[in-house]
Structure formats: C-alpha cells, structure tokens
Amino acid sequence: MAAPSAFGPTLRGLADQAFSRTAGAPLIGGNAVRVLRDAEDNYPAWEAAIRDAHTSIHLEMYIIHLDRVGRRFVDLLAAKAQAGVRVRVIYDWFGCGTAPWRGLFRPLTLAGADVRVFNPPTIKAMFGWVRRNHRKLLVVDDEVAYIGGLCIGEVWEGLPSKGLAPWRDTAVEIRGPAVAHATHTFIESWRETGGTWDGATPEAGAIAKAGDVSLRIIATEPFTASMFRMDLLVASVARERLWITDAYFIGHGPFATALTQAAKDGVDVRVLLPHGSDVGWTVPVARTLYRSLLEAGVKVFEWTGSMMHAKTAVADSRWARVGSTNLNVNSWLGNWELDVAIEDETIGATMEAHFLEDLEKATSVSLDSRGRLLVTPMKIPRGRARQSARRVVREVTGVARSVGAAVTGSRPLEAFEAGPLALLGVVLVALAAIGLYEPWLLGWPIAAFVLWAGVTLLIDAWKALHDRRSS
C-alpha cells in the first residue's frame, strides 16, 4: 500500500519497503485491472479468454463442481486442448471431492490436457492432507490472468429453478507485466504436484505495459503467513477507512486486536460477513467475536442475500485486496492461497462503491443496553446448509472456540453457542460411558492411530538418514 498523500517522499519509500517485505512480493507497475463482480461478470470473461487462447491455458482451482457449470468449463477446455492449445489444470482433491472419480476431468485427459491433483492424502503424511490449495487462478497465453474468490460451479451462477440467487463474490482481471508473476505462481504449484515444466517461463520485463495500475501478487504457502502480516499492516496504517468483506471470518487474536485499535483511533472500520453460510459453524463462530469488535467501535454487518463468498478489503480509497484468503488461521497459515494487493485510487473507489452496494443487502449488528448481541435469527435457505465430510475440519473450529470460552471463562457465552456445547457434552458423556463399559471400542482406534504415527515417524527418519548418506 502506498502511503497516504500526507506522507512525504521518504515515508512513501519506507512504506513501499515495508509492504514489499511484509508481503514477500514486489510492487509491479504498468497493469490494467478490472474488478469483476460475481459470476455474472467473471464467467463470461473467463470463457471468452479461454475461447480466444492461442498457446496456453493454466487453471488452478480449489473447487470445480460436477454440475452444469463445471461440465461447461471442462468441455470448453477440452475443445481448446483438442485444437492444440497447451491446457494445464491443477485441482485440489479435498475441494473437488469425489467429482474426479466420477469422471469430471475425463473429457480433458482424453483431449490431451494435463490434469494434476494437489496434495492428495497419503499414508506417510498423517495430517498433510488438511493443508489445502485454496487458490483460484486462470492464466491465458501469459497475457491475461484472473484471480479472486470464485470457484467453478452452479452456486456461483445461482439456481433460479430452485429459487437460489448467485453467490456474491469478487475477482479481478489483470493485463500487463503482473501476468508473468501469476504464471510463476502456477508453475510453482505445478511442480508441487510433481509435474515438470517444459514450457516457456515469461518474464515481467518482456510483457508490455497495459495500464498504470500497480499491484502485488501475493502467493502464500502453509506457515509463511505473508497475507496475515499484510492484513495486520494494513489495519495498522489505515488512516480513514478500512472496509472488509469475508466469507469465513474467525479473526485470530492479533488481527481482531488490530481492527479494534484502528477503530479506537478513529478509523471507520467496517466488516461485512455472511448471515448464513454453506459452512454451518462459521457464522456462530464469527459472532463470538462481535462483542469485542462492536465495543471498540467496529461496525459489523451481515449479508442477508445469497452466500457472501468474497474475500476483499479496501483502505483509504487507495489500497485494495482481492483473492482467496479468508480471515482465519486455516487460510492465513494452513493453505496455499493467492491474493492481489492493488494500489490505485480508481480501483479503490470501485471497491468502496461495491462495498456500499453490498450494505444495501445487509443488516447492521449492534449491542443492546445490556450488552447483548442484536442479531436477526439466522435462517439458512435450502441448498446453502448442505454439509459434507469435506467441511468437518473447519466446522470443528466453532465448537472448539465455544468450549475454550466455557472452560477458561475468557468471555460471556452467547445464546447461539448453547446448542454446540450441549451436543459436545452429550458426545463426551457417551464416549465416557463406552470407555467405562467397553474399553476396547476406544482402545483399538487409539492404538491404530498411535501405530500409524510411529510408523510415519520411522519412515521419515529413515528417509532423512538415507538422503544424507546419498548426498
């Protein structure tokens, strides 16, 4: 983020240095950027770029659903592969679930496209599978790149026949030197899947300028925390406004503190979150943080339209972020994510305008005179409450946060937390009863788990010793 206009040249230089080091990404000038709102803007642009491709199409996508929209994109990519365009696709096994097994990518592979799965589960990595490739990236001919929060599926277009509106989401179209950096992030992911790269590697200096927008492409990996540090820095330097939209907000302590400190310092901090979510626990989990935010002066809103899936921020009408990173520890520290930090007043104004439009479909959250949350009861339309095994890991976080508050007494419990706590209490009592009367039912699974862990550690130790001797 370039420093506000009140800063002198020296401070602007220091600010640029601070943001470059924090993000681990350089500021790239000479780009044209277009903010694309929802699938209505995004999908036609993506499909047009794919149809016009001459040499290469690189798609890195967390979720491609086995539905009408997913098949449409697969068929379009397969047609380009048959026409001689080099098509490479990376999908996340956790995000796509069973769709690949049911033939989602068969037309692509038959057409000669390269399709690779990211970080599939293996017996040697006990919990490695929980680290997800959550990126959403499309690069065509090394000329145009699309980065944002949208995956590929019917829910983003909506299902009028079932009365379901499109999900709210945001992405950006980038043309110019920054596209080379987008391609480099794809190449890194491709190699992470075990693939070899035999194509050209574009350089930013070889791509002509397409505009005057400066930006950073921030590609994060597990435990790097680049986007987390960037979010903290932006919250610290915002002087007038900081407006945030997020899909699965479970703000880590330091980030929540940064927001409250900014609000206490007079910054107009607004947070727009879903009123109902496809990941059931995330709404009540987010609400456990509302009290401290509201008491500090942060304005909290809940989107009452379709699912709010965007991950965006805009500060002081000048700095904007669009990408895949949600404001939670799993996204900041556990996943491969991809975001664009844009430093441009026109883009900043566009993002602020979109935020204000979104507030027209949102309800304000407040505290009553007794300090209780005033939140409209959550009603999740059919189709948005669908649960699956792929969401279990994330939903457990909600119970864990409520249990932590109940055990430590760190904050008052909200009424909506009673259900999860009661359910967990019943489960624990049932497990205790099983342990007392049939210990083997618990003992065997625990023994198998410990055996798996031991064998994994021994294999890793042997490999490390073998690699050392080989070198």
Report the end-to-end length measured between terminal Cα atoms: 44 Å
Shape descriptor reads globular
Tally of DSSP helical segments: 16
**Rg over CA atoms:** 23 Å
Multimeric state of these chains? single chain
Instruction: Please give the largest β-sheet.
Output: 16 strands, mixed
How would you write the strand order of the largest sheet? 4-3-2-5-6-7-1-8-14-13-12-9-10-11-15-16
Percent of residues in beta strands = 15-25%
Q: What's a quick, concise take on this entry?
A:
With 471 residues, the protein is α+β, with helices and mostly antiparallel strands. 42% of the residues lie in helices and 20% in strands.
Protein architecture, described:
- This protein is of the alpha+beta class and 471 residues long.
- It contains 16 helices and 16 strands.
- It has helices at 9-23, 38-51, 68-82, 93-96, 106-110, 154-157, 178-192, 226-237, 253-264, 282-287, 290-296, 329-334, 345-359, 392-408, 418-437, 439-470, and strands at 28-37, 56-61, 86-92, 114-118, 136-140, 144-148, 170-175, 213-220, 241-245, 268-274, 299-303, 312-315, 319-323, 337-343, 362-367, 373-374.
- The protein has a 16-stranded mixed β-sheet, sandwiched between helices.
- β15 and β16 (373-374) form a beta hairpin.
- The two termini are 44 Å apart.
